[in-house]
Amino acid sequence: MSTSKQGNKVARTAERRRLRNRLVRRSVKTRMVKAKSSVDGGEESAHQKTTLAISSIDKAVSKGIIHKNKGARLKSRLMKKLNKK
């Protein structure tokens, strides 16, 4: 920990942001896995799950948690897999 008040405040806010970012990244990964598995399984809900995954990717990109190019790459791969079936 820092010895200054400002340093301590920066450390606290950084920790809060880290936890929030981890939560968002984990939810994006979870939705990606669910969408991929439903597409591979040929489920009827694959389109809906893919839409949810894409919207969560867009939210993460808009918050700056994921880089915009990575978001575009993830969405492209999901749509490619969905349209293949």
How does this model look, in words?
The chain is mostly helical and 85 residues long. The protein has one domain: Ribosomal protein S20 (Methane Monooxygenase Hydroxylase, Chain G, domain 1, Up-down Bundle). Helices cover 84% and strands 0% of the residues. The protein is built from three helices and no strands. Helix 1 runs antiparallel to helix 2 and helix 2 packs antiparallel against helix 3. The longest helix has 37 residues. The termini are far apart. The mean pLDDT is 94.
Topology (elements, then pairings):
Elements: H1 5-41, H2 46-62, H3 68-84
Helix pairs in contact: 1-2, 2-3
Record keyword descriptors for this entry.
single chain; 85 residues; mainly alpha; Methane Monooxygenase Hydroxylase, Chain G, domain 1; 3 helices
Brief synopsis:
The chain is mainly α. 84% of the residues lie in helices and 0% in strands. Helix 2 (46-62) packs antiparallel against helix 3.
Largest sheet: none
The 3D shape can be described as elongated
CATH class label: Mainly Alpha
Total domain modules: 1
